[in-house]
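Protocol step 4 of 5: obtain the predicted structure for the target chain.
Materials: sequence only (see below). No template structures provided, no constraints applied. The aim of this step is simply to have a reference model before the mutagenesis design in step 5. Sequence pasted as it appears in the construct record:
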Amino acid sequence: MEFNLPEIPENAVVCLFHFPLLLAVVACLQFMNIFYSNSLHNACFYKFHKSVFIMAFYAYYYMFLFIQYLGLLVYNVFVYTFKCIIYASLSTYFVICYLYFITFHSRLG
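Step 4 output (structure tokens):
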């Protein structure tokens, strides 16, 4: 039996999920640009925080993709295990019914 992971979807749902976060990051950067642009020290402080915000956004994005990939892996393993349990239960049930049928008919005959 082949076990393939589906591709990570790059669709509108992912874009809609990240769009509010991107807007929040841009709003924070604009606020910091207005608030910290008074002196040289505050401008350096703003640049540092801007880079931290951008790094945090990219870390969040790649963590989201990793969690999504891991979720697909766990989902596929769960579905595969569930199918195996169902097939094993059904085959065990049919074997028990068959053995019961054979013993029941052997007692009659």
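Step 4 remarks: The mean pLDDT is 66. The chain has two helices and no strands.
Proceed to step 5.
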